[in-house]
Design goal:
Blueprint: H1 18-21, H2 24-27, E1 34-35, H3 37-44, H4 48-51, H5 61-72, H6 82-89, H7 102-105, H8 115-122, H9 127-131, H10 141-152, E2 160-161, H11 162-172
Antiparallel strand pairs: 1-2
Length: 174
């Protein structure tokens, strides 16, 4: 089940803001070397709007997919090459792709995933559905925080330690 957790963002979870540049200790309020759900939520609330791009208070499947795609596209050329794919999979986020191979997504075999190929491959992934726990086709802020925490907590001990934090944070700063 953990191999299905994480996909590109909790993301997907979340890309490219100053929030991610802050270090672990900023969020570890009790200084015990790990984040509990409450500490994590304080940090993660700031990232919700990065994924809710239309600012309607919910993240839909298209927003979720688009933001994850941008997380993998490190050089911002609107394509994901195999190196970017591999680097994305090496993060906790990438665990949601399980055993998916680059070639599974690169259907035209040109060595570059465009957004259409991504969307096609994305449709076979369950990352969005795992986050949308009430199955209303949207991810609200509560679902976002709980599911993101579960994804970041790789060892499933109920806390996000600094190594787990940095694994996702590196992806999210892309």
């Amino acid at each position: 089940m953990k191999t299905m957790k994480g996909i590109l963002f909790a993301m997907c979870s979340i890309l490219g803001t100053g929030v991610y540049a802050q270090d672990f200790d900023t969020f570890d309020a009790d200084l015990d070397g790990r984040l509990n759900q409450t500490e994590f939520t304080e940090r993660n609330n700031d990232t919700y709007n990065d994924w809710d791009t239309n600012r309607d208070g919910n993240i839909d499947n298209a927003e979720f997919s688009d933001r994850a795609y941008r997380g993998f596209d490190q050089n911002r050329d609107d394509f994901i090459d195999e190196n970017e794919w591999d680097e994305g999979l090496d993060t906790g986020i990438g665990e949601s792709f399980g055993d998916d191979e680059y070639s599974t997504f690169d259907t035209n075999r040109d060595g570059r995933l465009d957004s259409d190929e991504w969307d096609e491959g994305w449709n076979n992934n369950t990352w969005f559905e795992r986050y949308d726990t009430n199955q209303d086709e949207y991810i609200d802020n509560d679902e976002w925080n709980i599911s993101s925490f579960d994804d970041w907590d790789i060892n499933e001990d109920g806390f996000v330690d600094e190594n787990e934090f940095n694994d996702y944070d590196a992806f999210n700063r892309r």
